[in-house]
Design goal:
This protein is of the alpha/beta class. It has seven helices and eleven strands. It has a six-stranded parallel β-sheet with strand order 8-7-6-9-10-11, with helices on both faces. A five-stranded antiparallel β-sheet has the order 3-2-1-5-4, with helices on both faces. The longest helix is centred in the C-terminal third of the chain and has 19 residues, at about 250-265.
Length: about 280
């Protein structure tokens, strides 16, 4: 399996990993610069030369995957018989520098309702490295032509057309997904709010709409849905940055995207004090 395919596999699994690359080679070494190794929690793909270099890099890579907000780092290896590594001696005679690049699990966002505001929001979020799920019950909202504006997106786009029960998509979302409910139909919005509160492992739930709409929804969720106040309070409405009152779709989308990105920052674990990695 190529390293590109291995990285894609980790992303699809929503599993953190590390891309290990031979950055520089001086003298004799097992692999040339550019050789790559992908390290997952329990599997590896590719090779940077085996022996002590690879074993130490794998050990460090797995330490990084367990570290909050890890950063790329370099490791230096001297390959001579005077240096004993923790996994044995490599005496090729050269020196190697290895770059370790963490591959974190990216954020996942699901937009329910890809109308004027939903599409504008998708255009903004698509410029970020995340998994973006777009769901609508109207097929004309999800045509290739309409979604062509997302063709150069950085995000990975997942399109869900659900003409009957869009709330079924909630069960397909990855753990920790952020859900934004903004469909064309208040009944659809209400069903999605109810289903979202019954779905485990969602990171956040946002609902677009007025205070009058929310008052009706809140009562319905309590009386018909049987949800308690604490559960209902998980739904954030209105969504967006407070104080931005414009009603243009692009303005609303910018406000909602900014608020969501702020949530990402708040949820990010604080980095541990960085420790120097000794050259081997």
């Amino acid at each position: 399996m190529s390293w590109v395919a291995a990285v894609a596999r980790l992303r699809a699994r929503r599993e953190p990993g590390v891309l290990v690359t031979v950055a520089t080679v001086r003298g004799h070494a097992p692999r040339r610069a550019g050789a790559k190794l992908v390290v997952g929690r329990t599997e590896t793909w590719g090779s940077i030369g085996g022996g002590n270099i690879e074993a130490v890099a794998i050990d460090r890579a797995r330490e990084l995957t367990a570290t909050p907000d890890p950063e790329p780092e370099l490791m230096d290896f001297a390959l001579n018989d005077k240096v004993t590594g923790r996994h044995g001696v490599q005496c090729c005679g050269g020196a190697v520098t290895v770059l370790l690049e963490p591959l974190p699990v990216v954020q996942a966002v699901a937009i329910f309702g890809v109308g004027h505001v939903g599409l504008e929001l998708a255009r903004i979020l698509a410029r970020h490295n995340l998994d973006l799920h777009l769901t609508d019950s109207r097929p004309d909202m999800l045509t290739d032509e309409r979604l062509g504006v997302l063709a150069d997106s950085v995000a990975q786009i997942h399109v869900h057309h659900t003409p009957l029960l869009p709330e079924e998509v909630l069960a397909e979302l990855p753990p920790g997904a952020h859900v934004l409910i903004m469909t064309h139909d208040h009944a659809e919005d209400a069903a999605l709010c109810d289903a979202a509160l019954r779905t485990e492992d969602l990171a956040s739930i946002g609902l677009i709409g007025s205070s009058a709409k929310w008052a009706r929804f809140r009562q319905r969720l309590a009386v018909e849905g049987g949800h308690g106040d604490e559960a209902i309070d998980r739904i954030k409405t209105p969504i967006g940055v407070a104080g931005i009152t414009g009603k243009e779709p692009a303005t609303i989308a910018v406000s909602v995207a900014a608020d969501l990105l702020r949530t990402f920052e708040q949820d990010r674990p604080a980095p541990l004090p960085r420790q120097a990695v000794a050259g081997i």
